[in-house]
Amino acid sequence: MSPLYVVLFLPLIGAVINRLFGARLGKRASAGLACAAVLTAFAFAVSAFLGLSALAPAARSVVTPVYGFLTVGSFKIGFDLLLDPLSAVMICVVTGIGSLIHIYSVAYMEEEDDAEYARFFAYINFFVFSMLTLVLAANFMVIFTGWELVGVSSYLLIGYYRGKTSAADAGKKAFIVNRVGDLGFLLGIFIIMGVFGSLDFGVVLPHAALLGAGSGLATATALLLFMGAMGKSAQGPLYVWLPDAMEGPTPVSALIHAATMVTAGVFLVARCHAIFELSPTAMGVVAWIGGLTALYAATIAMVQADIKRVLAYSTVSQLGYMVMGVGLGAYTAGFFHLLTHAFFKALLFLGAGSVMHALHGELDMHKMGGLRKKMPITHITFVIGACCLAGVPLTSGFFSKDEILYMAIAGPHASLCLWVVGYLGACCTAFYSGRLVFQIFYGKPRDHHAYDHAHESAWPMALPLVVLAVGSLAVGLLGLPKFASSWQPFSDWLAPVFADVKTAPEADGGSLVYWLMLLYTATVAFLGWLSYQWFAKENPKPTALAARWNGLYRLLWNKYYVDEFYQLVFVRAFLGYSRWLWRWVDQGIIDGAVNAVGGFAQHLGALLRERVQNGQTRQYAAFLMAGVCLLLGLVFIYGGGR
Amino acid sequence: MGLLIFTAAVVANFAGMIGASAVLGPKRRNAVKDEPFECGSLPVGPNRTRFHIRFYLTAILFLIFDIEVVFLYPFITIFRNELGLYGLEVMGIFLLVLIFGLAYEWRRGGMEWD
Amino acid sequence: MFGVGFVLALALAIFSIGAFGVLTRRDPLVMFISIEMMFNAANLALVDLSNYLKLVQGHALVFFVIAVAAAEVAVGLGIIIAIFRTEKDVNVDHLSELKG
Amino acid sequence: MGLNDILFAIFSFGALSSAIAVVLTRNTVHAALHFVGHLLCLAVLYCLLNAPLLGVLQVMVYAGAVMVLFVFAVMILDMGEQEHAPLFNSAGQALGAGILGALLLGLLAWGLGRGGLDQALAPAGAASLPGVETDNIAQVARSLFREGALTFEAVGILLLTAVVAVMVMAKRKLES
Questions:
Q1: What string of pLDDT tens digits covers the 114 residues of chain B?
Q2: What is the pLDDT of residue D142?
């Protein structure tokens, strides 16, 4: 009974109980149950983490079988769990941040009635369970199951407000787009099964070379797996579902669309790095898609009015950075950014949630302003989060993001223009995070009515904010750049997992790193000042600027018309095709055949009644005679003498 | 062989008589002679009067009991010396059944001639 | 000169004529007569073969056949007359109450 | 060409022609009379085939009683000159009947002609039976009452049912 059983199945039990008996339990009990489940899971996760660290670095990968799922001849798949440094970090992140968000949503979902309240907690617990399945998977089958479960739970949570059609549509959109990604992932799994004859990581990853280094097959497998990652982590063409996923309640956005689920794609790439290493082309594709998505999403985030939309696009762009990092072969850096991002993005979302809660659901930034005095705690924590996001020096964001940018130049697959794209993205990030802070908390309050109501949120919402703020600062210290401190806990911790990766020649980059650091500090400072000028004070400049470059502004505002484009190309074409299919194939052939049979039977019956049994005795005699002839014929043909 | 001669003689005699009268007889036709002979009275109504049904009934019963009698002919030839009691049983049942039929018919008034 | 085959052929011919008669004539009585004719054809064949095989069972069978035919005529004619006394119409084709 | 054959030829031709006449005449009465002729010819044929008993029986029962009924029926139904309409009421029907008749004829002829007649007709067991002169009435009676006793009783019951049937029909007609 390894601790993993508890970590994994406790949230599931919580979810089941909440869902089945939730309404009767009442708010207190169901919330208590859910939080208890996740907290104990977190405790066991930490103990598992410590247990693993006790082992020698090389031996740090423990496979614990749970249930022999399927044995077909030589091919065997079991529902096994793998605990290695990578998954250990992930389970702590998932359960840790998960429990904070559980506590936060106890207060946040206060006004829902009992049944809905319990349903929310049941779904969130279920989500934690599915994310843990995904993270702890020891073979491709389990990871894919986790993949689907996470997709389902995100659908359920996005569509939580059943009443709102937009929420339901967003849920469907998320699910369908994920399915597209899953298709690629599944095809990848099939290829792996075909080549290796087994799905266990222990078997596949060490012998990845079987795919043929640099061969078409390797590239195809890698890209197909990456397609799954793109779907889940909202990269490249499949990012459209994430901004709409903001329809779900804010804790959901924080948990799923900031900290955990969206990182699944990066986790997958990190987990299967052996396969990706095989084909440089695949790595290049991954890196570039990551970089481009980062820049692209950052530009949109700059003009959005709704806080959650801005944060959503910022998540997409930060994920782009992680994918870029991983694509460049800097798995440790990419993963470190994942960790830091989980903390400060969850913080930002929860902050936005408490602002929204205070202003009774008001999300439009233009109506806010000057909340600094009204909501001190939220304000301070939000500022810390924004600094990490922007990459202000000494904050965790600074270390992790710049590590990736550094890798873009000095890494094994370095490419300068990719660094430029990354850098531009960083500038946009700095700009919109500044805008976020100053537009909400500084300047004069634009909407007095809302401003008067504003009040600091209750302790269950404030506490997680503080914890996350401290966490996001502390985490930064784990991955200080090489020259700063020899103490590299994070990369040492992940070293065994990525041991086989050709790590970058770190040492000589000393002087280059300095210059880069200086450059980033300067840009952040300048953009910070610029956003202060534009947004804190009532400055007409931004509107003027927007007016002058109206075309560009509107383009960004409408998200490059991507949604409309998808609607036109895919949805309408698909509907047309299915309508045609319905009319011709279904009605025409299938129904036609059935009716034909029915009609035929009817006619035959009528014919018989009309022609044959019509009372004409002589006709009966004729048939009799015909029968006699027939019999005679048969007798003579077959019978004959003895 | 004898039977054939006998039949031939019968046919010859019969044909001879009719043929002779037809050939020898005088043939003077007139309206009165051609009408069917009604014992002197003038013919009344269609020549084919409608028979009452009971005549038909008698005919059918005659047919059925005629068959009964026909079965008796061969029976008699071997009854006396060969069949003995067994023959009596067989014919007894047969006759009994038919007598029962007769009784039934009598009972139902098939015989009244009214 | 006239072997057993010839008489059989004759019986067969008569049987076919009887059948043909039943099929074509509309008048029930003629149909009935044709049926009797078929009976007789059968009898003729029986007699012919029993003569050929020197078997006496043939004759016994003819007895029974004639008995059955007679019974059949009795009942059949009874029915025909019963029907036609009420219908006043003799054509078989018009009688189709026992329709399917 | 003994006397026997001559008679045989005459009467078989007579039988055949009267049979055809029965089917083709318009008038029902004529048909009945033709049938009587047919029966008589058959009776003679029976005699020629060493079955005088049957011949007599045929004449007595069949020609006598059965045909009487027929004539009666014709009289009662007052049919007479019914058949003014063409013999067949539609070409199709005549054609069909013709085909069926021909088919039947062909099949039977083909059956006969197939040969193997003796083999087929001389059942293995029969040969062992003592071949008896067929015109011995005692022999016929013996087979009739010894072997066919059960059939004999069955015919008795058949006749009984016939009587009952006729009585039932007659009763209803008498009341109507």
A1: 677 778 788 888 888 888 888 777 776 666 666 666 666 666 555 555 555 667 778 888 888 888 888 888 888 888 877 777 888 888 889 999 999 999 988 887 777 766
A2: 80
**Residue in this structure with the two tokens 């070379």, named with its chain if needed:** A209
Number of domains present in the structure of chain C = 1
Q: How far apart are CA D99 and CA D81, in angstroms?
A: 28
Judge: C92–A608 Cβ closer than 8 Å, yes or no.
no
Chain C adjacent subunits, 3+ CB pairs under 8 A: A, B, D
In chain B, the domains with their CATH numbers are 2-107 (1.20.58.1610)
CB pairs < 8 Å spanning B and C:
22
Residues of A in contact with C97 (CB under 8 A): 615
Evaluate whether D126 touches C49 at the Cβ level (below 8 Å).
Answer: no
- Where among D59, D81, D103 does a domain terminate? D81
For A469, counting Cβ atoms within 10 Å of its Cβ (0-12 exposed, 13-18 middle, 19+ buried), the class is buried
Confidence bin at A484 (pLDDT 50/70/90) = low
- CA A590 – CA D90 distance, rounded (Å): 44
**Chain C residues within an 8 Å CB radius of B74:** 63
Alpha helices, DSSP H only, in A67-164? 85-108, 114-135, 140-158
The low-confidence residues of chain D, meaning pLDDT below 70, are 1, 78-95, 111-135, 172-176
Residues 7-46 of D with CB under 8 A from C: 8-9, 12, 15-16, 19-20, 22-23, 28, 31-32, 35, 38-39, 42, 45-46
* Contacts of A363 by beta carbon, 8 Å cutoff, 6+ apart: A306, A307, A308, A356
Residue A273: helix, strand or coil by DSSP? helix
List subunits contacting chain B, requiring 3 or more Cβ pairs under 8 Å. C, D
Q: How far is A608 from chain D (nearest CA, A)?
A: 18
Q: Which residues contact C3 (CB under 8 A, 6 or more apart)?
A: none
Q: With a CB-CB cutoff of 8 Å, which residues 7-66 of chain C face chain D?
A: 7-10, 12-21, 23-27, 29-30, 32-34, 36-37, 40, 43-44, 47-60, 62-64, 66
Question: Does A642 lie at the interface with D, CB-CB under 8 angstroms?
Answer: yes
Chain B residues within an 8 Å CB radius of D76? 50-51, 53, 56
Residue C54 domain boundaries? 4-87
Tell me the two tokens of residue B111: 């015989």
CATH code of the domain containing C70:
1.10.287.3510
Closest CA to B7 of D43, A506, D69, A554: D43
8 Å CB contact of A618 and C92: yes
Mean pLDDT of A636-640: 68
Compare all CA atoms of chain D with the CA of C54 and give the residue at the minimum distance. D131
pTM of the predicted protein model:
0.61
Whether the CB-CB separation of A358 and A305 falls below 8 Å is answered with no
Question: Cβ D155–C78 below 8 Å, yes or no?
Answer: no
Q: What is the mean pLDDT of chain A?
A: 81
Residue type, D103: L
CATH number at residue D66: 1.20.120.1200
Q: Which residues of D touch C49 (CB under 8 A)?
A: 121
Summarised one tens digit per residue, pLDDT across range C69-81 is: 989 988 888 888 8
- Domain containing D2: what range? 1-81
Q: Which range is least confidently modeled, A58-72, A91-105, D27-41?
A: A58-72
pLDDT of residue D128: 38
Residue A263: name the closest of A445, A156, A135, A175 by CA. Answer: A135
Given pLDDT bands bounded at 50, 70 and 90, which one contains residue A589? confident
ipTM of the complex: 0.65
Pairs of residues, one from chain C and one from chain D, whose beta carbons lie less than 8 Å apart: 226
A630 shares contact with chain D (CB less than 8 Å): no
